[in-house]
Amino acid sequence: MTNIPILKEREKYIYCKGKEEFDFTCDTKSLAGSVSQRACVFCGSRVVLYPIADALHLIHGPIGCASYTWDIRGALSSGPELHRMSFSTDLRERDIIFGGEKKLYASLVQLIDTYRPNAAFVYCTCIIGIIGDDVDSVCKRVTEEKGIPVLPVHSEGFKGTKKDGYKAACESLSMLVGTGSVEDIGRYAINIMGEFNIAGEAWTIKEYYENMGLEVVAVFTGDGRVKNIKRSHGASLNVVQCSGSILRLAQIMEEKYGIPYIRVSYFGIEDMSKALYDVAAHFKDNLGIMKKTKEIVRNEIDAIYPDLLRYKKALSGRKAAIYVGGAFKAFSMIKALRSLGIDVVLAGSQTGNKDDYEVLRDMCDEGTVILDDANPLELSKYCIEKGADLFVGGVKERPIAYKLGIAFCDHNHERKISLAGYSGMINLAKEIYSSVLSPVWKFVPSKNDFLKKHDTEMMK
Amino acid sequence: MKTQEKIEYKATSNACKQCSPLGASFVFRGIERSIPLLHGSQGCSTYIRRYLISHFNEPVDIACSNFTEETAVFGGGANLKLAVENIIKQYNPELIGIATTCLSETIGEDVPMILKGYNKKNFDENFPEIVSVSTPSFSGTHIDGFHSAVRAVVDSIAVKKKISTKQINIFPGMLSPADLRHLKEIVSDFSTDYAMLPDYSDTFDGPLWTEYQEIPEGGTKIEKIASMGDAVASIEFGKILAGEESAGKLLESRFNVPCHSLGLPIGINETDAFLKALETITEKPVPEKYIQERGRLIDSYADGHKYVFEARAVVYGEEDLVIGLASFLSEIGIIPIICASGGESGLLKQKILDIIPDAEEVGIRIIEGADFVEIGEEARKIDPDFFIGNSKGYRIAREMKKPLIRVGFPIHDRLGGARIIHVGYRGAQQLFDTISNTIIATSQEASPVGYTYM
Ligand code: SF4
Ligand code: SF4
Hints:
The complex is a heterodimer of chains A (460) and B (454).
Chain A: E1 14-16, H1 41-49, E2 55-60, H2 63-67, E3 87-88, H3 93-98, H4 101-115, E4 119-124, H5 127-130, H6 135-146, E5 150-153, H7 162-176, E6 189-195, H8 201-211, E7 215-221, H9 226-230, E8 237-241, H10 247-257, E9 261-264, H11 269-282, H12 287-315, E10 319-324, H13 327-338, E11 343-349, H14 354-363, E12 369-372, H15 376-386, E13 390-393, H16 398-403, E14 407-410, H17 421-436, H18 448-459
Parallel strand pairs in A: 2-3, 2-4, 4-5, 6-7, 6-8, 8-9, 10-11, 10-13, 11-12, 13-14
Antiparallel strand pairs in A: 1-12
Chain B: E1 12-13, H1 20-29, E2 34-39, H2 42-56, E3 63-64, H3 69-74, H4 77-91, E4 95-100, H5 102-106, H6 111-114, E5 129-133, H7 142-157, E6 168-171, H8 177-189, E7 194-196, H9 222-226, E8 233-237, H10 247-255, E9 259-262, H11 267-282, H12 288-308, E10 312-316, H13 319-331, E11 335-340, H14 348-355, H15 359-362, E12 365-367, H16 372-382, E13 386-389, H17 394-399, E14 404-406, H18 424-446
Parallel strand pairs in B: 2-3, 2-4, 4-5, 6-7, 6-8, 8-9, 10-11, 10-13, 11-12, 13-14
The structure holds iron/sulfur cluster (2 copies).
C-alpha cells in the first residue's frame, strides 16, 4: 500500500478485479481538479483528421491550441506534407470583441492561395461559439469562391470529451465521402479505417491486404488524400481499427451506402492475424483470398517467431501497467504482452465505455487494477502497489514511469517506431526489451523502497 | 504598452510563441509546494503539460477546472471551487496558482470574485495561499503569462514587515533550471541572502524519486516571497520587461525596494552589468572565482575569434532572449542577421539598436510577431551560417542544411533542455564553445582534406 490519496468521487472509476461486484463508472467528463491525462474535443478531431496530408488544417482560435499541436504526431505521408504545418487564425483581443469571421475568411483565402490544398478543415476551438462566429457560412463562402471543399469541424474543446471530437471529425469527413467517382473500383475493395500511418504502419497493413488480393480505396486517414476519401464509398467493406475514433464514419457509410464494417486491431500477432482472417472471410465468394491470407500469416509468423521467443525468454514474468487513449488498444496490448510472457497488473484508458471495460475486466487476471480517465497520482499509486516493471503509455505517462524507476514503452501517436503488424510486434518486443533490460535501472533507488518506507511508518 | 496592431488579417503559420497560461505554469511550478490550476477547459492544461513534459522530461501536474457546456453558460465558479477542493485533498499544497484561459476570459470569469473568502482566515491554517492571474492568450504570449504570474504572486504575498534583512530579490525570467542554479550560486557567492522567483531548478529538473512526491521538492519558499517587501533591492532581467509593469517595479512603488532592470545576463557585457549590480547592492567585490571564470572566457574568445568572426546567425525566441543572444553574439563578432520573435512588444527593434547601433546598415532584420514561415522566408534570402533558438526552427535549418544550435524553450528534439546554461560567464563559455565548434565542424565536414587539427 501507499498513502497516495484517491479522491472519493474517483473511486468508482477504479476497479480491482476480484470478488467485488463490477460497479464501474466511465465515459463521463473529467472531474474538476483531477489532473486528467485527457485532452479535449479538439484533440479528438485533430487525431482523426490530421494525417490527411493534402488538406489544409486551420485552427480557428487563439494561438495555443495550434502551437501545442504542431507536428506532434508521427503520421507519415508518401507525398505532400501540408498536415505537418500548424495554421492558426491566432485571434486577438480585437477579434474576441468584434468576432473572428473576417480573420478566418482572410486566413483561408491567403492559405488556400499559397498552399493550394485539395480541401480545408477549419477546427473550431473553445471560444469560437462564444464570440458568435458563424464558421459554417464562412466555410461555405470560401468553398464557393475557391472551388475546394472547406469543411468546418465543430470541435470546441469544452463541448464533451475527446470522443465527441472523433464524432465531429467523422461528420466533416462524411461531407467528403461520396463526392468522387467510383467507376474503376473493383469488387474486392476495402477502406482501412482508424489507421493513422504512425511510423508508416498503414503502409505495412495496406501491403498485407494488397497481397491478399484486395484493393484499398482509401485509408482513413493515414497518408490520407482527399481524392481517395471522396471515392471511398466505392469500397465494399470498411475495416475499422482503433477504439472507435472513426466508428461514427463507418456507421454513417453503412446507413448511407450500405457498406458493412468490421472492427479489427493490428497490434500483436493474435489480433493482427484475426484481422486478416476476418477480412478474408468477408469475401466468401473468392476462396483465393483466404488461401493467400493463410500463406501470408504463416510466412509472417515464421519470420518473426525465433526472435519473439528470444525476447519472451528475457521478458517472462515481468509485470506491466498499460494506460492508453482507447480501450481497444488496451485489449490488443494485453494479448501482445501475454505473448511475451508479461502479465498486466494495471490497465486503463482515457475514453473507454462500459462495454469496453467489461471486455477488459474479463480479459484481465485477478488483482489487476482497471482505471478510467486516471490521473498521475492514481497511475503512480497502482504502479507502486502492484509492483509494475514496465509502463506502456504515452508522453504524459513516460516521466511518471521513469521517476518511479520503471521501464517504459511508448505506444502513442507521437512514436517513431511502427508497432503494428508482424514486424511491429518485433519492434514492440525490442522496445520493451531495451527498456526493461537496461543496466541503468540498477542505479535507481529500488521501487520496493516506497513500500518499505511506508511499512516502517505504519509500524511506528 | 503594446503597439497598436495593424488591421491586416493574416494567419499564423508555425507559431514562434506559446500561450500565456504556459508561462504562468512555469512560475507556479517554481514555488515551494505549489501547483498550477488552469481555469478553463481540459485541453489547454493537458496540451501545456504535454509541451512542458517533452522539454523537461519530468512529470508535470497542472490541474484544471474542466469546463463543461453548462459551465460555459452559467459560469465556472462551482467548478473552480470544486477543483480547488480536490487539489487540496490530493496534493495538500501550500499555494495554488490559478491562471485563466481564453475560454474563462471570454465569458468574463472574475476569479478573485469567485474565490473571495476562500482563504486561510476563513478556513484553517492548512488552507493554501491562492494566487490568481489573468492570462488571456489573445492579448499576449507565454512570456507575458510568465511575467504576469510573477507579478501576481508578489502582489498578493509580498509584504513589508520592517525587519532588517540583506535579502536581494531576483526575478530571473524564463530561464533554464541550470541557469537558475547558476544564478543562485552567483548570488550566494556574494554571501548575501536572496529570494529568487520563480525557482524551478529542482522542480523541473530533479532526481528520481526515493519517495513518492505529489509535488516535487524545491521551489521558492513562500516566506521568502513574503519578505520581498523588506529586501534591499530587486534585480530583474529583461529589457522588454523593463518597459512593462513588473514585479520589481511593483515592489519599488509599493515598498520602496529599488529595482535594477538589467538585460538577461548572456555574454560578458550583460554578465558584467549583473555582477556590478550585485557589487553595488552588497557593497562586496566580485568574488575571485568569477574574475577567473571571466578571464578564461576571454582567453577562449581570443583562441576562437577568427572562426566566428562575421558569421551570420538567425536568432529567434522570446524577445528578451533574442536581445540577450544578440548582445552576446555581437560581442564575439557574429552578426545576428535575423532577430525574430513571436512577441509583439513594439520595443524589439529599439532594444537591438541600442546594442548594435549600426544594425540597419549591416542588414540585420528585426521581426516582431514573427512565425516560422516568415523566419524561413527571410532566412532563405540571406544564406545564414547557423540558426540559434529552440527546437521549432529545426525544419527550416534542416531544409537549408544549416546547423541549429539549440537554446531556450522548448527543446523537444534533444535531451537536456533543462541543463543548457545560457547565463553568466559559464553560460557564455558554453555558448561560445558550442557555436565555434559548430562552425569549425561545418567547414571540417565540407573540406575535401578532413584535417584532424584546426
Ligand atoms: S484556448 Fe487559449 S489558453 Fe487554451 S490553449 Fe488555446 S491559447 Fe492557450
Ligand atoms: S481552448 Fe479548447 S480547444 Fe483549445 S486546447 Fe483548450 S480545450 Fe482544447
